[in-house]
Amino acid sequence: QVQLVESGGGLVQAGGSLRLSCAASGRTFSIFAMGWFRQAPGKEREFVAAVSRTTGITHYADLVKGRFTISRDNVKNTLYLQMNSLKPEDTAVYYCAADRDIFLSGDYYSRPDKYDYWGQGTQVTVSS
Length: 128
Hints:
Layout (H helix, E strand, L loop, with lengths): L1 E6 L2 E4 L4 E9 L6 E7 L6 E6 L6 E3 L7 E6 L4 E6 L8 E8 L17 E2 L3 E6 L1
Parallel strand pairs: 2-11
Antiparallel strand pairs: 1-3, 3-8, 4-5, 4-9, 5-6, 7-8, 9-10, 9-11
């Protein structure tokens, strides 16, 4: 098992930036593919970004491509999401997720139902 704890959310004006962190504990962090998802009120949880275990391969949702950057530090056991040029429509609870069996060369990395481990979420609110 792995335990995930997100931090770094908050209130920011449109055009601003935030950096989310996800601290992992338990199993060896580098064996997990990692993803960021978000869920706005009344909407389904949606994929934001994913990163591979050690090779640095990344994928992004079209809505955030060019604005958000996912990264990980396997020494610090931490996942990051740098969010720039934030928009009001980015407002949501952001979750990090981990799974041992997902590979970014496949199709499952964007599906929340394929991830086994989740953090509790951190609220991001972007004001206009």
